[in-house]
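Bug #77: duplicate submission created two jobs. Keeping one. Sequence:
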Amino acid sequence: MTLVQNMQALGNQRRLQILQWLKDPERHFPPQLDGDLIKDGVCGLLIARKLRVSQPAVAEHLKILSQAGFLTSKRIKKWTFYKRNDKAISAIGRAISQKI
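Kept job's structure:
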């Protein structure tokens, strides 16, 4: 993905909010039955509830963030869990700094 595409992925307040919440998932989300908030990530359903949007709406935001490399996902049972990819986020920050 190009730097412009990565920036477009960040050009939405809801996607920025998701990334902010996932920076400290224990603070922003309740404990889960399946999957550890830190080790496995946060269930997409919990993200949808907190964002107050439908599952299809949050799925689109999570897909865009994942394609841009900002999130990683993990499947546990029938659920998908999402974590920030801090290494990729740092790399994007460095790329932006080099370009401007």
